[in-house]
Amino acid sequence: MSLFIEFHLIQSFAPSNLNRDDTGAPKDAIFGGQRRARVSSQCFKRAIRLKSAELGMIPSEFGSVRTKKLKELLNERLAERGHPDAGLQIETALAAAGLKLKDDGKTEYLLFLGQGEIERFAELIHAHWDALSTAPTGEAKKTKKEAKASAPAEVVKEAKALLDGQKAVDVAMFGRMLADLPGVNQYAACQVAHAISTHKVEREFDYFTAVDDRGDIDETGAGMIGQIEFNSATLYRYAVIDAHKLVTNLKADQELALKGIGAFTQAMARAIPTGKQNTFAAHNPPSFVGVVLRHASPFNLANAFEKPVWPRQDRELTALSVEKLAEHEAKVSDAYGDGKDAWAYLDLTDTWPKTKGESRETLDGLVDWVVAKTRAALGD
Asked: Which of 106, 138, 198, 223 could form a disulfide with 321 if both were Cys (CB 3.0 to 4.6 A apart)?
């Protein structure tokens, strides 16, 4: 039976510019015929990955990194093994796996790799050091095909099987696509929606000046002037994890999958994008975090806000948003659900219906509920 773990958050940010477009303005979108504030899924996914690593809930050997600096990482590991200068060997080993380094020593594009994969690469190079040291380099390797052909046969064979994720939780969660190595692509177990405001927004502008602290008496006026665009928004955030897919991606390691789900729950609630935070310091936690285990299919509830929420003097915008979310969820689950949904929630607005799920007073309590319920459901 399918098992989807959904996360529904209502989070109000003070004036901020968390996620900018190419002009420096806060990202937005038209939804329900009205302009909404938007924070991209990529922005929140990175914030979630970094927060999860910071919390340290996943053992470091199951961590990951997204970088072009694979050569630098391998050099560090090989130096620990007594090989301080491993440029030729690294280049040849990566070519054997189908990857090529540019002239600046970086890979051609960002690689999303598990720490275990990087460790295995270093071990591969260490084990075949002598054979890799005699491989041709420079002008003899102008293409990836030629470079791969120059690698020892045993290295090519091992390198092909090396990029298998090595149970990296973030790679299993968010997936990866390597254009040159489609065989090692990973289909994500987690999907994250673009966060949008529950109400219409207008861009605002902050005209600012900066004063020269060492200005002379005849130097009047500002040393610098400029302007920054920003907005303030109550966002609806949504994500869903396919629990069975996550277990499969982690090579049937159910305990590691449960650790990943617990870490994701914590990070989803605590992660805040870093854009322009030195200017705005918009460190505002969610007012509502709802988690539901579904079996029929996942339901993004953004349509609760197709008609924008309008401010009222006697009610908080967050409370009105939670209220609309609950009303819409009831309609959707009645029409499309299977009656087996299990909810738990952390609600600072005291608006979510008490009859709909189990209330938790703390985020830690909500995490414990998610892990326990998922463990039981996976065991069925």
From this structure: 198
Q: Is residue 182 part of a domain?
A: no
Give 239-286 pLDDT, tens digit per residue.
999 999 999 999 999 999 999 999 999 999 999 999 999 999 999 999
Name the pTM for this structure.
0.92
Any idea how long the chain is? 380
Confidence band, pLDDT 50/70/90 cuts, at residue 304: very high
Distance of alpha carbon 40 from alpha carbon 36, whole angstroms = 12
Query: Which distant-in-sequence residues (6+ apart) come within 8 Å of 118 by Cβ?
Result: 65, 70, 73, 74, 77
Q: What is the pLDDT of residue 140?
A: 45
Q: What distance in Å separates the CA atoms of residue 84 and residue 87, rounded to the nearest whole number?
A: 9
* Within-domain flag for 234: yes
33 is written with which tokens? 């015929």
Total domains, the chain: 2
Per DSSP bridges, beta strands 28-31 and 34-39 are antiparallel
Tell whether 195 and 161 lie within a shared domain.
no
Q: What range defines the domain where residue 117 resides?
A: 73-167
